[in-house]
What does this fold into?
Amino acid sequence: MKDDFRRSMGWLHTWAGVVLGSILFAIFWMGTLSVFDCEIDQWMKPATRLAPAAHALPLESYRPFLNEAIAAKASFWNVTLSGEREAVVHTHYGTRQKFISHDVNPVTGQILPDAGTLGATGFIFPFHYTLNLELMNMGEWLVGLASMAMLALCVTGVIIHRKIFTDFFTFRSQAKSRRMLLDLHNISGVLGLPFHCILTLSGLILLGATFFPAGINAVYPNTRSYFFDSNGLSFLAVKHGKAGASVVSLDQAAVRAQSLWGNGAEPHLVLVANPGLTTSRIAFFRGTEGQVMVDRDVIAFEGSTGAFLSRPQALGKIMQTQRFLSGLHLIEFHHWVLRWIYFVLGLGSCVLIATGFLFWLDARRKRQAAQFGFRLVEGLAAGSVTGIILATLAFFVANRLLPVGVSFWGMERATVEICAFYTVWLAACVYGWLWPRSVWVVHCIAIGTLAILAIVLNWTTTGDHLFRTMSHRYLWPVGGMDAVLLVGALLAFLAAGRLLRRLRKQQHSSRLIVEAA
Amino acid sequence: MSQSALRVVARIFLATGGGYLASSAVMALFSFALVAMGMPRADAVTLGLLLVFIVYLCLGLWVFAARALWRPAALFAVLVVASYGVIAVFGHGG
It folds into this structure.
């Protein structure tokens, strides 16, 4: 490319970063929020803010929902049990036309009112790996491309360093803004390097079967059979049976699954495939919150007779490695300190991407400020960094503002929330292109305001203010979200203040230059 | 479009598209060979998936670092042809 290796890698680092930085920021931002997806869900669905159940209900309490699925001729029904992070029980079933889910109170077994929101598990987490673009899996492929670029950025970023260990300890907070930005970019990059690399690579591996079907098709008839084979789900490949069969007691089957697992393991998810048909299957997926490695060890029984069907062989070394990497990425294990460290490191990745953008702009502002390409990146940077943060906050505010059961122009409440997200995102981008000088200040002030508004709205609509949520253990997830919003608001106002002072100084000095001339 | 811009575009396509096809081919050959040597299919494919992204990364970076483009282009072509050839001759879909 260029004359020497380091300059080629520098070129790649710059341009891969500028072109794919927006997508990368969106992925890392949504991924960072997904660390606390269940907690955000509790904030967005006030009816699910429940004290944990002292005793789990017997599985048969969910039989009415199974019967509902049978009556609807569903192809599957499942129930996700509540745990330390999930306050409520979720049941789902899917027919050919639709996908129905209910939140169920784990103490009474009653359906909770529909909150009319997708929440974090339904919008923020899928956005993290699909960008909410479902057309031809385009989102997933874009995420894959951006993730490969992230790996390349990590490698090239190390290569173009001359003094990586010196940069490690250098942060000149009082230096000129360009120097400071580069220091911040280096520090967040180098300190978080293992995190950036491992999380990007494990994310790619999680979706590996989507990205590299060619390797699978070399030895399997299709991707599905690899999926069944590697997850111990081959019992699902059955023909459609006749209707009218019953499903045996879920609790009795659960006891047998638990005795096969041993070690006091409990099921996390119970699946009934082909419910009500003669070929129905009951499967128990083990909870793995006690370990990093995701090993569901699925035990399956015949649905109508309760006869034992299958249990996968113990995982081999290669599968263990893959499941460990998946576990590192999905954080299904329970460990609050580690979860917060993931959150902070994720924010570090966001800082890395944002400062990369800002450094690119700052290094070119004097020479190219009027050029189209520069203006494009300037708008893109603001829109994709502070813009998506604003959009997320608008999503939260809309969630607290919209009354339950409301609909606009035939759109359901959950869709209206997502419209709020995209409208604010678009507006933030447009503002960045029209008024690039003031965009960062305005965005920061807007972020601070929306975050405070979200806290106040949560208080007024549910009565859960910070003092109340902090004094009840089961409300900590809600309180934690409010506290993070508060800290974020303070930081945003602080940043706005600094930017405003600098803007005034610049205006003052440019006026002096004009007067002198 | 100037010639240097054209060359940059060619390089990007070769790194992303060519690199993708070549690493796909490497993974297919690798998994196929492991299964032929007696490893369970799920293990062979999973090991391939664990490694293929690193292969793709290296091939892509090589394209950007190389002086002449014909060298990576030629290797990629050989890999793709070899992979299709081997799997077409020795069986497909297990």
Remarks:
- The CA atoms of residues 22 and 76 of chain B lie 5 Å apart.
